[in-house]
Amino acid sequence: MSQNEILFKRALQSIPGGVNSPVRAFRSVGGTPRFIKRAKDAYLWDADGTQYIDYLGSWGPAIVGHAHPEVVAAVQRAAESGLSFGAPTEAESQLAEAIIARIPSIEKVRLVSSGTEATMSAIRLARGATGRNKIIKFEGCYHGHADSLLVKAGSGLLTFGNPTSSGVPAEFVAHTIVLDYNDLDAVKAAFAEYGQEIACIIVEPIAGNMNLIKPAEGFLAGLRSLCSEHGALLIFDEVMTGFRVGPQGVQGLSGVTPDLTTLAKVIGGGMPVGAFGGRADIMDQIAPLGPVYQAGTLSGNPVSVAAGLTTLEILSRPGFYEHLQTQSAKLVAGLQDKAKAAGVPFCADSVGGMFGLYFRDTVPTSFAQASEVNHEAFKTFFHGMLDNGVHLAPSSYEAGFVSAAHSDEIIEKTLDA
Ligand code: PLP
């Protein structure tokens, strides 16, 4: 029995699904999940010692490559000074200041411990600050476990936010209006119907959880002006895109300014850090200045924050984003040729360090289109590459990520796999 099989057997005794969950499984079709034991630069090694080139980057945080020596050293230094204090830390202020210095729409920011906590806190704050309850979200956009606050009434989907499984009270669920991504007319209609009841719109400004869908021309600007007109808040969930598609996330690329932004992944450099921030007058609604209570035992702990701060410093070095952009484009072009040679229906797109691979003939613009993939082609192509030592992405609905460690040599090896 292989080490992966032994570990899977053990995990089945203690972990529901034995880690083989739809989002975390790392396996070929019908195969045993791989248990990862080590990661360095652009590589992962599983329990049997098999090496993989990694394009998931721990679901995004590993943007400077796995186990970057400067990040490891910063974590070690911080750990030697104490793991967590349950009190304000200097490192917390430094990371907050680093985020504010880089993203102009963020005037004040609170650190939390995950992307989910960031989106939940932002939604809660938007409700508290506006005194309204309804939320607009878009089908296919993922906001972490916070989706449990955001499902449509009666949704039978097996989602992270299934109302029956999450125990969310019905009156809460009924407050969410779920619309199609890129359908501005539907947003206008929702404001026409519910106007003064809508607290906020939450959106992935480039959707990385439907593979990779870019906003249509004018979509984000349209959301901005509808929110301003109706006194609702615009929340950009940049947990995936923040510091990845460019130094100021999608808001920097689009020039559209949200009221609140959520961040995680990159800002923790592999450690649990999330953040939500934005307009000072809204952020000041948090206690003790305002009525919205918000605090977490491990928020801003110095060890996690040290990894994030060092990662942001590395990202600020000249040429960092150009490298991500170039390597994503090379990878995507190479995969396109490979798929063509294999006769697989395929197209691809990229932005900064994020790429989408679509097993269909055109780049999708909506959730419905993103769901129309040729699953056979996906399985053959992706799982074939996994068996040849390349972990491109776990599913047909997730973006993949390129890091600083994806050199030309790594990309060539990938395309040869
Ligand atoms: N928001 C977006 C856009 C995400 O991609 C994710 C996670 O993938 C989350 C929120 C949730 O973040 P976390 O998994 O850190 O709770």
TrEMBL record:
GO terms for molecular function: glutamate-1-semialdehyde 2,1-aminomutase activity; pyridoxal phosphate binding; transaminase activity. The modification N6-(pyridoxal phosphate)lysine is found at residue 265. It comes from Advenella kashmirensis W13003. CDD domains: OAT_like (cd00610). GO terms for biological process: protoporphyrinogen IX biosynthetic process. InterPro entries: 4pyrrol_synth_GluAld_NH2Trfase, Aminotrans_3, Aminotrans_3_PPA_site, PyrdxlP-dep_Trfase, PyrdxlP-dep_Trfase_major, PyrdxlP-dep_Trfase_small. This is Glutamate-1-semialdehyde 2,1-aminomutase. Its main location: cytoplasm. It catalyses: (S)-4-amino-5-oxopentanoate = 5-aminolevulinate. Belongs to the class-III pyridoxal-phosphate-dependent aminotransferase family. HemL subfamily. Homodimer. Keywords: Cytoplasm, Isomerase, Porphyrin biosynthesis, Pyridoxal phosphate. GO terms for cellular component: cytoplasm. Its cofactor is pyridoxal 5'-phosphate. The keyword Chloroplast does not apply. Pathway: Porphyrin-containing compound metabolism; protoporphyrin-IX biosynthesis; 5-aminolevulinate from L-glutamyl-tRNA(Glu): step 2/2. It is found in: Cytoplasm. It comes from the Bacteria. Its EC number is 5.4.3.8. The keyword Cytoplasm applies.
